[in-house]
Design a protein that fits this description.
Number of strands: 27
Number of helices: 26
CATH class of one domain: Alpha Beta
Strand order of the largest sheet: 7-9-6-10-8-11-12
Helix content: 25-40%
Structural class: alpha+beta
CATH architecture of one domain: Alpha-Beta Complex
Radius of gyration: 26 Å
Strand content: 15-25%
Largest sheet: 7 strands, mixed
CATH topology of one domain: Phosphoribosyl-aminoimidazole Synthetase, Chain A, domain 2
Distance between the termini: 41 Å
Length: 753
C-alpha cells in the first residue's frame, strides 16, 4: 500500500498499478498540480480516476443513450439514481450496479455488499427502498469452484436482503464458460418517494456542514474501486482485503434514521459512501454544488486502531452516509440518529474555495483543486472485431444434422438446461412478500408491485442475453432492450424507463471496445424506437482473467406502469378451453437465423453461431397490441418467446398454469416459399428457434374475433396455435408429454448436488 508522507524519487510502477493509474496519467496529475502529489492525494486521484468512478473508457459512449422523457425527473449522471414520475405525486427511483469483482474474490460478502450499496443509492435520493432485483452470471455448475461462487452469491443476496426487509421480486441467472473466473453480480434496487421530496447530493452553500452517519470506518474495501473494478486480476488472495463486509441490521436502522432526518427539512443533501468511500462522497457532493470541502478525518469514527489518513479517505466500509445541514441544525439532526442508535459525527464543512482540503487534526494531509480530481481522462478508442467475428455469424443449417432424438426428448433437455430451468431453488431463499406490495413475484415475465394508496402498480424486470451480443453487439444490444420491454408488456405495463449495467472485458483491447461501443449504439437505437430513456446505470469493465474476457453482457432493468393494478396478466395458462395465439413476426415461417445464438444450438448442437435478427417496428407493434389486449381484458395470459423459442414458451405456460395444451407448430399445413411441402421445414427451427417479436397469449374462443380486429388494426400477424386443456402437452404428431413430466424436468434442471 502507498505509504503516507512525501513521495520521494520516481514513483514505482507497482505503486501505480495498485491504484490503477498509468504512468501517463500520473504525469498528467503532476502537470495539473505543478508538483508531485503526496500519497493521500495520489490515492484520491487513483480512486476518482478509476474506471468505476471516472468512466474513462465509457463516458464518451454513454452520450448515445436517450435520457429524457416527459416522465423523467432526473438527469442521468447528475444524481445517484434515475427518478421517474408515475403520477399521484409519486416518483419511482431505480438503478442497477455491479459488484462483480468483489464477488469473484469473496462471493458471500461481495454479493451482500452489492445489495447494500445499491440500496444506499436509492436512499440517497430520499426514497424508501421497496424492491430488489438481481442479474447473475456464472460458469457451468459442473465445476466445484463455480458451485462455490454460485452458492456464496445467492447466500449473500438472500442474507442481506432478507435482513434488510426489502423484497427481492425478480431476477435472472445464466451460465456459460466465459464466466467461470468472472461471475457477474448485478444488483438493482427500486424506491418510492414523493415527487416533491426527491433528495439531492449537492452540498449547497459554503458554511454548510457534513455529518458522517452509520458504521465505523475500517480497512475493508480499500482500493475496491481502483484495484478491483479498474483492472484485470489473476490471483484473488492478494485482493481479499479489498472486499467490503456488510451489516444489514445497521443498514436497516440507517435507512429509517435517514428518512426521518430528511422529513424534517433540516437535511440539505445526502450522499452514500460507496466506491472510493469518503473521497468520492464528499468531493462529488461539493463539486455538484460548485463549492469545495474541508474534512477533518480525526473526527471520523473508526472501528480499527491506527488507521492512516490514506486508509480513512479510501476505505469502502459499508453502511455509511454523508448528510449536509446548516450548523444551527446539526444538533437536531444528531438527536434523530442518537434515537436510532446510529453514530453521527461532524467531519467537515463546505467551503467557497473549490478545493478538497483534508486535515488530520492540526495536520493538513491533502489539498487539491476539485476540478482536477473529478476530471478523469476520457479515452475514445477505435474498436475492431476479432478475427473470428464474421465466421461466428455464418450459420450453415444444411450442414447441421437434425438430432437423433425427437422433439419430445429435445424439449426435456432444453427445459432442464440451467439457463431455462426454473430458478425457484434460488428465489425461494429470498423474501419477496415482505412490505406486502408484491402482486406478481419471481418466476413471472416481470414482477408487479402495487402502489399503496393508489390504483396503480409498477412492473419491474431485469434481462440481457450475452450470447446474442457476442455474435452481433449491435443487434444484441437492440434485443436486450426489446426483451426487457417485452417482459413488462407481457404483464400489461407500459415501459417507462431503463437502467443499465454494462459488463465487458478489458476496453483497451480493440475487440472488447468494439463490443462495448456497438452494444451501446444498438441499445440506444432500440431505446429511441421504443420510447424508453436510460435514466441511470453502471459500467463494469475489465471482467476477464488470464486473457479471457466474459461475453459482452449488457444487463437492463426496466420500469413499467399499470394505471390499474387489477389489469395485470400472468404467463401461465389459467384454465382449460382457451384458444392460444401467437402475436408477431411478419413471416410466421421459421428462418435459419431464428437459431442464431439459441439455447438449442448450444445445448443440442454444441454451437454458438449465427446473426440474430430483430424488426424494431414489428417489436413495437407487438408490444403495443399485447398491452391493449391485457388492458381490454382479452388476454387471459401472456408470455414472451425467449430462450428455447416457441416450444419452451408454450411448455412454460402449461407448467406455470398446471394446464395442458394441444396444437400444431406454425409451419404445419403451410407451403414453404418455394412451394415445397411443409414437411421439409425443420422441426427444430420451428419449435426451438428464438425469433424475436413474439408473444404467446391465451383467450376465450368467443374473444377471437376481437383479437383479429385489434391485430389487423395494429398490423400485427397472429396465428392460432391450439387450445388449452387436459393433462398433456401435445404439439404436432411427434411431441406428446404429460405436464407433470415437463414440469419435473423444468423444476429440477438447476439441481447440481
Amino acid at each position: 500500500m502507498v505509504a503516507e508522507g512525501e513521495i520521494t524519487g520516481e514513483i514505482t510502477q507497482e505503486a501505480l498499478d495498485e491504484i490503477a493509474l498509468s504512468r501517463a496519467e500520473y504525469n498528467r496529475i503532476v502537470d495539473l498540480l505543478n508538483r508531485e502529489p503526496n500519497p493521500v492525494e495520489l490515492g484520491m486521484f487513483g480512486a476518482l480516476w478509476s474506471e468505476h468512478c471516472g468512466y474513462k473508457h465509457s463516458r464518451p459512449l454513454l452520450k448515445f443513450f436517450p435520457s429524457q422523457s416527459s416522465r423523467v425527473l432526473s438527469q442521468q449522471g447528475a444524481e445517484n439514481a434515475g427518478a421517474v414520475d408515475i403520477g399521484d405525486g409519486l416518483a419511482v427511483v431505480f438503478k442497477v450496479e455491479s459488484h462483480n469483482h468483489p464477488s469473484a474474490v469473496e462471493p458471500h460478502q461481495g454479493a451482500a455488499t452489492g445489495v447494500g450499496g445499491i440500496v444506499r443509492d436509492i436512499l440517497a435520493m430520499g426514497a424508501r427502498p421497496i424492491a430488489l432485483l438481481n442479474s447473475l452470471r456464472f460458469g457451468p455448475l459442473s465445476d466445484p469452484h463455480n458451485q462455490h461462487l454460485f452458492q456464496g452469491v445467492v447466500g449473500g443476496i438472500s442474507w442481506y436482503g432478507n435482513c434488510l426487509g426489502v423484497p427481492d421480486v425478480a431476477g435472472e441467472i445464466y451460465f456459460d464458460e466465459s464466466y467461470s473466473q468472472n461471475p457477474l453480480v448485478n444488483a438493482m434496487c427500486v424506491g418510492l418517494v414523493k415527487k416533491d421530496a426527491i433528495a439531492t447530493a449537492s452540498a449547497g452553500q459554503a458554511g454548510n456542514v457534513l455529518l458522517l452517519v452509520g458504521a465505523g470506518t475500517g480497512r475493508d474495501g480499500i482500493h475496491g474501486a481502483s484495484g478491483l473494478a479498474s483492472r484485470t486480476f489473476e490471483a484473488e488472495e492478494e485482493l481479499r482485503p479489498t472486499v467490503q463486509v456488510g451489516n444489514p441490521f445497521l443498514e436497516k436502522v440507517l435507512i429509517e434514521a435517514c428518512l426521518e432526518a430528511l422529513e424534517t427539512g433540516d437535511v440539505l443533501a445526502i450522499q452514500d459512501l460507496g466506491a472510493a468511500g469518503l473521497t468520492s462522497a464528499a468531493i462529488e457532493s461539493a463539486y455538484r454544488a460548485g463549492r469545495g470541502v474541508s474534512l477533518d478525518i480525526a473526527q471520523v469514527h473508526l472501528r480499527e486502531k491506527g488507521m492512516t489518513g490514506y486508509e480513512v479517505m479510501l476505505s469502502e466500509s459499508q453502511e455509511r452516509m454523508i448528510l449536509v445541514t446548516r450548523p444551527d441544525k446539526t444538533e437536531r439532526v444528531r438527536k434523530i440518529f442518537e434515537r436510532w442508535d446510529v453514530p453521527c459525527q461532524l467531519i467537515g464543512e463546505v467551503i467557497s474555495r473549490k478545493e478538497a482540503v483534508v486535515v488530520d487534526g492540526p495536520r493538513q494531509i491533502a489539498s487539491v483543486p476539485i476540478k482536477h480530481l473529478v476530471a478523469a481522462p476520457r479515452y475514445r478508442l477505435k474498436g475492431k472485431p476479432d478475427k473470428d467475428y464474421k465466421r461466428r455469424q455464418k450459420l450453415a443449417i444444411d450442414q447441421i444434422p437434425l438430432p437423433p432424438e425427437g422433439p419430445s426428448d429435445i424439449l426435456i433437455r432444453l427445459l432442464a438446461s440451467p439457463n431455462i430451468a426454473s430458478k425457484e431453488s434460488v428465489y425461494r431463499q429470498y423474501d419477496h412478500q415482505v412490505q406486502t406490495n408484491t402482486v406478481l413475484g419471481p418466476g413471472s415475465d416481470a414482477a408487479v408491485l402495487r402502489i399503496k394508496g393508489t390504483r396503480k402498480a409498477i412492473a419491474l424486470s431485469i434481462d440481457g442475453n450475452s450470447r446474442y451480443c457476442y455474435l452481433d453487439p449491435y443487434r444484441g444490444g437492440q434485443i436486450a432492450v426489446a426483451e426487457v420491454c417485452r417482459n413488462l408488456s407481457c404483464v400489461g405495463a407500459e415501459p417507462l424507463a431503463l437502467t443499465d449495467c454494462l459488463n465487458f472485458g478489458n476496453p483497451e483491447r480493440p475487440d472488447v471496445y468494439y463490443q462495448l461501443e456497438w452494444c451501446i449504439r444498438g441499445m440506444a437505437m432500440a431505446c429511441r424506437y421504443l420510447g424508453v430513456p436510460v435514466v441511470s446505470g453502471n459500467v463494469s469493465l475489465y471482467n476477464e482473467s488470464k486473457g479471457q474476457a466474459i461475453y459482452p453482457t449488457p444487463v437492463l432493468g426496466g420500469l413499467g406502469l399499470l394505471e390499474d393494478a387489477s389489469r395485470h396478466c400472468q404467463s401461465g395458462f389459467p384454465s382449460d378451453g382457451l384458444s392460444v395465439a401467437l402475436l408477431g413476426r411478419s413471416d410466421l415461417r421459421p428462418r435459419k437465423m431464428d437459431l442464431a445464438g439459441s439455447e438449442y444450438l448450444q445445448v443440442v448442437q454444441g454451437l454458438v453461431a449465427g446473426r440474430p435478427v430483430l424488426d424494431l417496428a414489428l417489436e413495437s407493434s407487438v408490444q403495443d397490441l399485447c398491452r391493449r389486449l391485457i388492458g381490454d381484458g382479452v388476454a387471459a395470459s401472456a408470455h414472451d418467446c425467449a430462450e428455447g423459442g416457441l416450444g419452451v414458451a408454450l411448455a412454460e405456460s402449461c407448467i406455470q398454469g398446471g394446464v395442458g395444451f394441444t396444437g400444431s407448430p406454425p409451419s404445419t399445413g403451410s407451403p414453404t416459399p418455394t412451394g415445397s411441402p411443409a414437411s421439409s421445414v425443420r422441426w427444430d427451427m420451428t419449435m426451438f428457434g428464438e425469433g424475436q417479436s413474439r408473444i404467446v397469449i391465451s383467450l376465450t374462443p368467443e374473444q377471437w374475433p376481437q383479437l383479429e380486429e385489434l391485430a389487423a388494426r395494429a398490423q400485427v400477424p397472429i396465428l392460432n396455435l391450439g387450445t388449452t386443456g387436459g393433462s398433456n402437452f401435445k404439439w404436432g404428431p411427434r411431441l406428446n408429454l404429460s405436464v407433470t413430466e415437463i414440469a419435473q424436468a423444468w423444476r429440477n434442471g438447476l439441481n447440481f448436488a
